[in-house]
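Comment thread on ticket #2218

A.B. wrote:
> Attaching the input chain for the structure job we discussed in standup.
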Amino acid sequence: EKEMKEFDFAVWKEDKYHVALCLNIEVSSFGTSEDEAINNLKEAVELYFDEDHKELPKIEGVRLGKEKINA
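C.D. wrote:
> Ran it. Output below, let me know if you need it in another format.
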């Protein structure tokens, strides 16, 4: 039986889409709004676990930042 799992995510706007990235596993999705991107991400994470993946690593201390580089 499936159990509830909690995951962490980040959302940002990229051109005309919002991108949602799961921080616990390498899964992302997008949508035309933040809510759509988050809902699509939830579905993508559920599909990830349907493919026999059981572990969802817990993460702590998320920090988002921005740095400048010469490129």
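A.B. wrote:
> Thanks. Noting for the ticket: The beta strands are 9-14, 17-22, 28-31.
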